[in-house]
């Protein structure tokens, strides 16, 4: 609502608008009793002494939507007593009070100081501060909250350190990755590596504290003395201070830009100098990248190994050590190309095990290809040989066991009657329980009903967990899916 819908104006106090306070208080009938009139008179005298210009008065009046030259709000309760606290201008900013409910009496919306007991000097200083706050918020109100948020965001992106962080993003990310990489332990001399890590903590601190973009709701607070809007994100625990006069964002901790530019370049150069002293490691990593690129049959071979290791009776070939290395190589993250900076290149590696480098040194890529080809053929032959009999035990839970024949029967039904069924219902079905759900879905008519009658339901559930762990089935949003 506009404040003039409920504001009352009294001739002895031309600068004041008296407003009803409280949800059930809809109007001001008078200026109150002698005490209240004296308070209003004191506030009017303080405003007169401020000697505000006509433009300043009109700006506040327009912001609050008041009339008759009044620009300063005070509040009265139902007993016509003046509320002892003045309302903060933020309470009116981008806010439209409900005409039906009036102006609610919310403690946080008011200044904490009680002006009714102040000396003339203290009251004058308090009124001066409040008017300054109103003038600042009046200027802020000319734009919407979203417009200010966009202005702050754009100014943030223009901050010199933010621009440096954007320009050096690849280096910054590489430093952070390398600082946590297991490869760092291989580099020598160790004292140089230790010094580099120490410098990383100093250089990276302002980058780590830099508030990044997020989609959370932001809060704006206002400092009229310094003409600053502070934007805070409670979720990210970050804030940006925007200087309205200079249209510039200030970070919580402003880095020395000359030092920041030098430091990020120095930290990259120092690492590259260390890396170049470790030519053997660089060659090993180059070989890892070449091996992964050229050993194209890895995925197929590892899938064959996975299928064979499901069975309790496994051919010896799946225990071949080179297959373990092949699995690690397939899991390794390798940079797509060699970067000109050793820091950026090394940071692109993520090896499951450092021991991979020892295996790399034992043979050439051509020898590895020949070994993989032989393994491929051996795995193929192993898969063509039946590794089990239908009556062989597939899994065991306590004293109960499931044969391969029983497991395959269950797997087959996961695409049929057991599809999308929760585990507790599957356990009841296999146990042979009778329930409303089982009868309603006619699950008691399926071939598997009661097939595990000697099992406890909790053991059937454990059996399914074991099948999942050994790669026979996979948990979905609803029920299970057979992987064999």
UniProtKB/TrEMBL annotation:
Q: Kindly give the Pfam families that the UniProt entry links to this protein.
A: RQC
Keyword Cell wall biogenesis/degradation among UniProt keywords: no
Q: Does the keyword Nucleotide-binding apply?
A: no
Ranges for the RQC domain? 424-484
GO MF annotations for this entry? Answer: DNA binding
State which residue ranges cross the membrane: none
| Gene3D superfamilies the record matches | Winged helix-like DNA-binding domain superfamily/Winged helix DNA-binding domain
Keyword tags: DNA-binding
- This protein is called what? RQC-minor-2 family DNA-binding protein
Originating species: Metabacillus sediminis
